[in-house]
Amino acid sequence: MDAIVKMLEKHQPFFEKISRNIYLQAIKDGFLGCMPIVLTSSIFLLIATLPGVVGITLPQPLIDWCNKLYNFTMGVMGIMVAGTTAKNFTASMNRRMPAGKVLNDGSTMVAAQCSMLLLAVTQFTTKFDGSELSVFDCTSMGTRGLFSAYIAAFITVWVYKFCVSRDLTIKLPKEVPGAIAQNFRDIIPFGGAVIICGIIDVVVRNLMGVPFSELLIKLLSPLFTAAETYPGLILIQAATAFFWFIGVHGPSIVQPGIDPIRLANQAENLQVLLAGGHPAHSLTFNMSLVGEFGGTGATFIVPLLLILFMKSKQLKAVGKASIVPVAFAVNEPLLFGAPMILNPYMLIPFVAAGCVNVSVAKFFIDNVGMNGFSFVVPWATPAPIGIFITTNFQLIALVFVAIIILLDAIIYLPFLKAYDKLLCDQEAERAAELGLESDGAATIAASTSEPAVEPTAAAADSKPVADQPESAADASAKKDVDGLKVLVLCAGAGTSAMLANAIKEGAAQTGENIASSAGAYGQHTAIMDQYDVIVLAPQVRSYYNDMKADTDRLGIKLLAPRGKEYIDLTRDPAGAIKWLRENLD
Fold this sequence. Notes:
With 585 residues, the chain is mainly alpha-helical. 62% of the residues lie in helices and 6% in strands.
């Protein structure tokens, strides 16, 4: 097992390179930018449908109003994603542009939205009250048009790059105000992108008789059908966990390619549910509540197992510290604290638990009558609650939750016990070396920097900074952090909030004027220039080089603590402030 992990670690740079692919990043960040649409629209949908579950009938005008809000948010998500994807892809492309040449992300955003409408939406005329009306078919404006949104975004940005790199723009005299001159410079690339997508639309409609968005869905439908089988669901979940195990944020690699079909399936499940049928799709957006039950690796039950059954003081401490975050799907304290990432003892359960969960979920949906997930809930919703809500409050869903908790415990327990024995032996050895009783092993384990497993790039250990005495140089450096603005970034703004809160608490303790905020990588580009320091959480550390290019240009200090060090800082507010001082040189 050690040899396998060492081999995986050796190839970690290759997997990190995959995660930094600019197309995957643009899709992920573009979709993340539209998450408020998904979550807000779901709230209105729940308002319209939830009372009916308990026998309460709402006034029809209120139901119609909520449905309208849903249709005018989720129903146009494809158009919005085209814009946000183009905006993020433009940011990546600008890092690769020749000096002095920059793509206008506001213009590419609008151009991509127009291009997406050409590729996905059908316009026709109809008569209403004796008058002819021009009508848009809205079917592909929402989640069904996401693939067209991505294609439109990529075509648009490449056309802009081609034109701007070769100065194929309309140039005005230097006396013309910059904003007006920029509008004229964007005319040729804007027109080029729209014309190209318009030509694609005409060709596809004439040859195939369907819009481009429907053609993509038909061509990819065999792949989506395969993805919704037991082997397909297992492969998706195994890949997600595998990437995370080697220290690369798995959902960022796996999910962008399947998000369109996951959302489309969930929307279809909702339509079937509202019509009184049985939602049967298992490959849905909120299937992550099952496969990533408590976070990637299905770690929901692990902190409790550590507290109840482990003898190692180290694992008991990790269990107590991580039980609340893991309940809300923020499992980095567990992943880097135990550690689980690149830990040979954890490879099998970390990959297997989620695979078993999704298999059981499909069995329940196909054979036991449990609804496929229909309502969208936030990713940080405690998994048992989220599963109960999104299955339309079925009691069988609670039985399902109990079963997968039990199965995950059975999968993890033997491997945790083996790892626990290793740690107990190491603690006893260290206690014996220092002439202490075995009861003192916990104190030694907490004060030593020696890790239980070999340190790696993703799970490096370090001495908690609070244990080191503050020198005179540290005290004199306090003025360097006074008035500092710090932005902490992670994949979903969960882990980053832990460090941001620790910095706030540390600033209050030391009486220093330091402001800290948490955010998700990909949503930072519009606000990063407002900060003095940006900290990358371990799961987005692979983006360091891309971020460094932006922070150097803006004169911002970029920091990227490794796994165990980051978790230590989240638990040590005063140490977090000291760490900032030490790293501002």
